[in-house]
Design goal:
Layout (H helix, E strand, L loop, with lengths): L3 E7 L2 H22 L3 E5 L3 H11 L12 E5 L1 E3 L9 H8 L23 H14 L12 E5 L14 H4 L5 E4 L9 E4 L1 H4 L4 E6 L5 H8 L17 E7 L15 E3 L9
Parallel strand pairs: 1-9, 1-10, 2-3, 2-5, 5-8, 8-9
Antiparallel strand pairs: 4-7, 6-7
Helix pairs in contact: 1-2, 2-3
This protein binds 6-phosphogluconic acid.
Length: about 270
């Protein structure tokens, strides 16, 4: 299976969010025409929420049989259930609570007010993943994994120069002293992220240009965790024009697509 890597450039953050949402809806319809369930890993962050809001506002989303979609998270912030800063809270507000789906389809991570400590919570989610796996795997076969990307190139809660980026055995890790608040988090590890059929990284803004440029130029995973992301079937970078300021000149026309126009001159 050849692994496809593409950068799809959109004029601005709004167009980016709408385009990713539209592609997500279309892909889910196609997937569910061919298989009983779809497993999707959501991301926190502003772009993650923006995409879900666009899905909620996309009339075509009613063509998805959401009852057959399972939602997971790539990471979660160690906060009380319902806290406005939890990734789950933001995803529910943006889309999930408006969908007619069974609560069992939403696989949220434990919260800090539920009587277990952070490390135990990582084990709880690892068990949840394994309980929904097939063929003796440790996690389900994810169809699409969304990732936001930080200015430092972090994805999920895997940060540069931290041990979590290099974790190969555990499926879920606890994170302390996170450079991005809040300090305590839970995160899938790269092997789990990269087990996904498709990984869709969504990033916008000039502050992401360095992370995107370094990722595409082949930076080390330890320095730029996004550089270590590779879906089994495809890895798509959905970006806005501002984030492309440092994209390597060497990228070919088949790797870098300016949507809506033939060239960057149009924006
Ligand atoms: O819990 C989180 O904060 C996210 O999972 C994190 O990995 C986020 O996706 C990136 O920091 C990008 O965030 P923005 O899209 O807001 O820049």
């Amino acid at each position: 299976m050849t692994n496809e890597r593409r950068v799809l450039v959109h004029p601005d953050k709004t167009a980016l969010g709408a385009a990713v949402a539209s592609r997500f809806v279309t892909k889910l319809v196609d997937l569910l025409a061919a298989q009983p369930l779809a497993h999707v890993v959501l991301t926190g962050g502003s772009m993650g929420s923006a995409v879900l809001e666009h899905v909620a506002n996309n009339p075509a989303s009613t063509s998805v049989d959401w009852t057959r979609v399972h939602f997971w998270w790539g990471d979660e912030r160690w906060l009380p259930r319902g806290d406005a800063e939890r990734n789950e809270t933001q995803a529910r507000a943006a889309l999930l609570d408006s969908l007619e789906i069974a609560s069992g389809n939403i696989h949220s991570l434990p919260a800090s007010d539920e009587g277990i400590e952070l490390d135990a919570a990582a084990s709880v989610y690892a068990k949840e993943l394994a309980d929904h796996a097939t063929d003796g795997a440790l996690y389900p076969r994810f169809d699409i994994t969304f990732l936001g990307v930080g200015p430092d190139g972090h994805v999920a809660s895997l940060f540069p120069e931290r041990g979590g980026v290099r974790e190969k055995d555990l499926t879920v890790i606890s994170v302390r002293n996170s450079p991005k608040p809040p300090p305590e988090r839970l995160s899938l590890t790269l092997p789990v992220i990269n087990s996904s059929e498709r990984v869709w990284l969504v990033l916008a803004g000039a502050d992401k240009a360095s992370a995107l440029g370094l990722t595409l130029a082949g930076a080390s995973v330890n320095e730029v965790p996004a550089a270590g992301v590779e879906g089994r079937r495809s890895t798509l970078f959905f970006v806005d024009a501002d984030a492309t300021a440092e994209v390597p000149e060497s990228l070919t026309a088949t790797e870098l697509f300016w949507t809506g126009s033939d060239s960057p001159d149009a924006y």
